[in-house]
Amino acid sequence: MNKKSRMNLIVSLICTCLVVCSLYFMYDVFSFHTYGDIQSFDYVLSLNNDQIKLNGLEVFNDNKILKMSDYSLSLENLMLKEQQNYQVIISLNDIKNKASHQIINQFTYSNGQSKIRFQQQSLQFDITDLSKAYIQIKCDQEMVYQHALNLIPTKKLLGSNKEYRLVQSCVAPYDMKLGYLTTTNKDIIKQYPCVSLEYRYLKNEKKSKDNDNNYIVFKKISGLSKDIINNKKYQYYHQDKELGRLDQKDLSVVVIFSKDNGKTFVFKIDLSLEAGE
Fold first, then answer.
1. What percentage of the chain carries pLDDT values higher than 70?
2. How far apart are the C-alpha atoms of 203 and 262, rounded to whole Å?
3. What is the pLDDT of residues 165-181, one digit of tens each?
């Protein structure tokens, strides 16, 4: 092998080593930006008529587990009996698997209460495709009320920078799954033990986006960084109709990391709809 060939071989080996080392050390960042959330459906279920109002119920399939947000029922015009136990049954029909699954909650009606609130749940239901949903209210197996629910598809939201990414966030006209913040920065939790996420939308699109006073903060999540960052916990937000549609807002999240001495690390993540939504 002559001198020129040896030189070319050495250069090729050096370049190969550089590429391999780059892939090895940058794998976390690479996978962070290319990973896709897998879920077969994501809907908000709603109902609004003279007898009952159901707000903010989101259901989605996450790795063969059905997850359901907390939700509220307004029962102002439904005739219920004092101190009676009632069942609220949400039925979900999976047309592909020809199956129906039920989510059952219970409450005791007392003192003329007009609003009932139920907590979020995770259930071992593998639903491939949600086709229909119904609500039933029963008392001692007697049907008190039943009605089909509206199925409103959500739109996936994307938001990230070099080190941080908002995962599992989506929006419907008046509901939003806030998602959770992930990072490839392994030291941030130790450096800044506290964090706050401020979800907001632009107040006036004709005014500057750089003016913090031109935003409405509609939801704030605060706590320990170790409990919030890279932690798969979902929170939800329901907006009153008079405040406008969330899926038509210019959305963003301000992330504020802080230390006990008052030092902070602040940045913003803009949220946008996934292409095709």
1. 83
2. 29
3. 999 899 999 999 999 99
- Would the CA dihedral through 33, 34, 39, 43 be positive or negative? positive
Q: Tell me the domain boundaries of the chain.
A: 42-153, 155-273
Coil, strand, or helix at residue 152?
Answer: strand
CATH fold of 155-273 reads Immunoglobulin-like (2.60.40)
Query: Looking at 110-159, which runs of residues are DSSP E strands?
Result: 115-118, 121-123, 130-139, 142-148, 150-153, 155-158
Strand partners, 122: 67
pTM: 0.75
DSSP at 214? G
Q: Which residue has the higher pLDDT, 218 or 113?
A: 218
Decide if 42-153 and 155-273 have a common fold. yes
Mean pLDDT of 122-144: 85
Task: Please check whether residue 67 is in contact with residue 122, taking contact to mean a CB–CB distance below 8 angstroms.
Answer: yes
Give, in words, the CATH class of 42-153. Answer: mainly beta
Q: What is the pLDDT of residue 10?
A: 64
